[in-house]
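Friendly challenge for the regulars: who can give me the structure tokens for this chain first? No prize, just bragging rights.
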Amino acid sequence: MKSTLGAPELSVDIRSKIERRLKLSRAIMLITIASLIVGMVQAQAFTLPSDIQVPTSSETQTVAIPAIRGQILDRNGHTLAMTVDSRNVIADQTLVKDPKSQGLLIANVTGQDPALITERLAGTRRYSVIARNVTPSQWEKIEQLQLPGIFSERSLARSYPEGLLAANVLGFVNSEGLGLGGLEYSMQKVLGGLNGERTFSTVPGLSTADQSLVQAIDGQHIKLTLDRDIQWFAQEAIAAQVQATRAKSGVVIVMNPKTGEILAMATAPTFDPNNIIGVDTSLLGNRAVSDAFEPGSTGKVITLAAALEEGKVSLSSKFKIPSGLRRGDKRFTDSHAHNGLKLTLTGIMAHSSNIGSILVSEKLSDTTFYDYLKKFGIGQKTKVQLPAESSGSLPQVSEWSGTTKPTLSFGQGYSLNALQAMSIFATIANDGVRVQPTIIQGVQDGSGRFDPLPQSESTRVVSTQTARDVRSMMEYVVSAKGTAPQAKIPSYRISGKTGTAQAFDPKCGCYRGYIASFIGIAPSDNPELVVGVFLDRPQSGIYGGALAGPVFKKVASFALQQLRIPPTGSKLPKLRLKW
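First reply, four minutes later:
Bragging rights claimed.
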């Protein structure tokens, strides 16, 4: 139907569609207007002037702020390792005028390669490290040159005021200040602290002021059980004997058997931790804990102690010692040929009879004997706070052959390190109680607060009576009738045992050379010290009494005087060696 006005009438559907489109258009227009308004506000409120730049992450540089590394002190507070101020030479390469000539001038002061310094001076970096850890006097000379683009920043260098002293115990740090050996490595988290950092702009024309700063947390100090003076004397003594015997190396350890504290741990040859450039890497470790060897006759102490503890023998038990003894497919002999001996248990100890030790071990079952070897720590780490400790080795009973037990009875067929050998004698000195060795007394913070380490773990291995009986037998080792009269100290009662063991060479899979050793206890009737001396492959002899005994006498005598330990005044009980 037509409208009377002459215009066509819209249907209801068409009208509703148009209304929806109008509403949508209005909404789009409102959103667009709102966006324009927000954009204008943002432009007015937040846009920086065109001549100011905001550095991006690629236009900043973060530099570490080194923490001051903690000191290492001896038991009396003497400084063995410390951190000293130094400077890092820094260049803003964009300001350096002549890299070659400036590099030559800096090299003349620092002693570095001029070409390397020139390379570090050339470029467009705002921060380039030219030389690390130069001394304050060296930086003063460089500063006087007034070289464009050359600056410095505070740095920290490690210093060892006593030079070679206890170097293998202390270890060393790298150019970044991280511990790489000894206590510097094993105690890195305590000594090193936490480095801070600062971030600054590297955009040319902008300020290089810090944009963020995190302060460093300095490391803590470590107080050792070492006595500086005893350590020095032990080091001098073993160095002289290594040279005199032309030995491959040597170790001396001085220990308090009651506490497990190590008073000295000296090795020769050694190194200077102040300068390790070009040093033979074989010198950088600590042979006292890393090198495992067969102990030889010092191991007889375990055999005789086990038999005494089990009630199988007494100090006066009688043994017929033949000239040779066949066990399995091997004939065993003593170190000195004889036509047969009649020895007591004490005589077996004093004369260090291999055959006697075999006969004593046969009074014990294989399992019982093995258990005592384990109780004394064979095949186990001492858990001292030093890195790279060897656990040594001990074959399981199931692996034993007909010659294993006889061999084990006189200290071969298993291996240990020097500190483990010391622990055996410390157990006997401490009336049968094994105490875990320690070389750290505690930790001290910057305010002087000292936190001692927890007391060392202890385990009873044999009875007090057994330990005292073994010490009495060992006193005859240093008598005129024993194997080490050279170790006797006037006015003091000394117990000890010699060791002369074949050294195993892994290169050939064979025995080559000897380990000569002596471990002694002083005073025997009231033990305060255990001193061990170990010489690896000496060329001027093989016997522990003759080579290691004199070093024991020197070091033990000094330590007794240093610690003001008087003679006890008591007399050695009379025991028969033969029957």
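The longest strand covers residues 79-91. Residues 59-113+125-143+152-224 form a domain with the Penicillin-binding protein 2a (Domain 2) fold (CATH 3.90.1310.10). Your move, everyone else.
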